[in-house]
Amino acid sequence: MITNIDVNKIEATRDLKEMISNMKFNINFESVKVDKENVDVGFTFVTAYEGSDKAKAVGKLTISGTISAKESRKDAEDIESTWKSKKTLPLKFAEDVINMLNFECGARGTLVAYSIGFVAPLPLSRAKLTEAPAGSGTGAG
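Now predict its structure.
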């Protein structure tokens, strides 16, 4: 269960004064620390704003920090093991973390985005992760 989100950096840049026609979202997991049932995941949430020409980057909003969770000892060990071996998170836990970060970073980033003329960084749908077929990378649907 997610217990806390600690944001330690927010940065927004607007490179062009162009109308925004598209946003792309990306969440990177930077680190995982497990202490008994406590799990801390370092993250970076990026919203890239694009102009009418999709190759034209208008700007971006970056939010970094740590999301904390309290899990069963077995689940915490599985999270740690998966991180050490694959540098990823187990699907169910990753899905919960991504959905919480989408909500929290969207809410926290809204005022920053508006202050430089961007729309709110709000992903429109809930993330639903699935196992990818062997050899095809990770999957999200």
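The first helix runs from residue 73 to 86.
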